[in-house]
Amino acid sequence: MALLFANTANAQDGMLSVISNGKGAPSEMNFQELKSILRGERQRWSDGTKVVIALMKTNTKAGSTTSKKIYGMTGDELNKYWLALVFQGKAKAPAFFNTIAELQSFVEQTPGAIGIIDVAAQGNTKMVTIDGKKTF
Amino acid sequence: MEKKHFSPPPFKRKIRKMRLGVQSKIWLTILCIVLIFAFFLLFFFPAQQEKYLLKNYEKEIQTLANTVSLGVKIALTEQNFEGVQTAIDFIKDDNRLRFVAMIQTDSIYEEKTKQKALKKTVFKSFPENFTPDPNWVSNELLIIKISPFSTDIMKGEIMVGFNTSEIVESKKEIRQTSLLVSALISVFGILIGLWLARQISVPVLALRDAALKVGGGDLFAHVKAIQTDEIGELGRAFNEMVVDLRQAEEEIIKVNKSLAATNANLELALVDLKAAQNQLIHSEKMASLGQLTAGIAHEIKNPLNFINNFAEITGELLNEVGQSGLSPEQEQLVVQARDNLMKINTHGKRADSIVKNMLQHSRATTGEFQFTNINDICNEFMHLAYHGIRATNNIFNCTIETNFDNHIQPVKVMREDIGRVILNLLNNAFYAVNEKNEEFKSGNSSANGYKPVVTVTTELINKRVSIKIRDNGNGIPDEIRDRIFNPFFTTKPAGSGTGLGLSLSYDIVVKGHGGDLLVNSQKGQFTEFIIVLPA
Fold it and tell me: Is A83's CB within 8 Å of B85's CB?
């Protein structure tokens, strides 16, 4: 009941959380590091694992929030941004999902994966704190 | 209606006169085939392959552009970048890629024209530092394919540029391969030509040579027909034909020999027939002439007897008158009349002799056949003739040679008649040598140291007896040889011969004895008469 409340609170507040696979991403990083990773500027984690980004589609609230907070772009701009990177072979494009559950499942199963959700992580999914906070 | 004869142009006539041998035709055929193959391999097939290669290349590039375009569309509409990621990863690993660009198309309002216009700008490109012109089109070095996409976010097109170096390289390889294959085909063609020449031309030429030999008469010429094809069959047929020709020729030779023998027999028969015909004509002529001669002689003989008798009686009367009591003038007339009577008597007797000969000639043969020694009769009449001529010409001298065959048995002949023949021929021989001797003595003859010789030879040949009487006188000219047996033909001066001797002799030998009277002569050298009598 408390988790459901928290989730609802995150969504309403436009707060985001970072989840990751157990392998690759560290448990804690600052916001600039997060932005650098999510913009595709870093391709590998410190342990060598390839970075795999998982985002909610921009037509979802979480996706829209992610675009604005992390990328500072609209959904269309985000698409064009990633299209440009992918087109030039500079980065591997993120995987976009329609639901949190799909995203969380993907992250759990994909080594090096890092995802942005607007709810608290469910189950045993690893949470990454940003600047010491679970949400930002 | 006038016919128009079509005459081909000179160059066509020249072409018709050109003679191409089998070997040339084979090589020409092989050359044509090789040239056709070479043309296809060097020009047609490479052009076709290059065309298909370029078409496939362009199709492949277009497919890649379409794939990227579709991936972009999916990425922009569904935020699924896997397609475009995969397509881009695939395309950028292709070493033929020159660039791939995403062209953004924007519709802008132009103030000048007051109309909307499309503006193309390069949104992104790979490689990053290469920015193509959106208006580029394909050329020889670069193939450009465009695939449009349209989403709510963005409209544009994917522009892919691939270089043609691979195509050029492929073309080069194709041409090299074609050249190599053409060379191989040419070599193969030459080998086939050699093989065909050996299989066709060589046997045909051998057949021609053999045919020429056969044409030249060599019916043992043959060809080696070891092949099992039509050429071999032709060679075997030729050999069989030559064998048949040889057999036919042998048969022809046999038939020719038979025909030659028949012809020889026919010629002999013809000669015999002509001889018989001549003899028949001669006999008829002689018979007619004999009757005429007999009539004339009979009619002349009586008045001639009167002339001779009264000439003698007149002579005797003149002798009885004597010369007493005659004036000198009368005596001179009596002497003159006596001389005239002597001339009348002399010529009358001569005329009587001619008449007797004529009667003898017309009488033909009337004697009886009796066995007679030919050598004896020759010897007898030889002496008679010699002394006869010596009686009238006491300075006549001649060598008489005899070659008598002592094995000749007595022959059944009319002795007196054959004796007359021998006598006639010997008289002629003595006359001839005497004439030549007189010429020699008077210096009119070119014969040096001439000695008159008359030879009498008897022989028994093939059951026939021959009597040859040969003299080394002046011979008989060719132009009169055919007439010497004609009655009254003579070369002697008037009063020396009647021209009946040879004619009479011919009748006696041929008609009277069934024999033959032949003559050989060479002008200025000799004359030889041969009496042939059946033994």
Answer: no
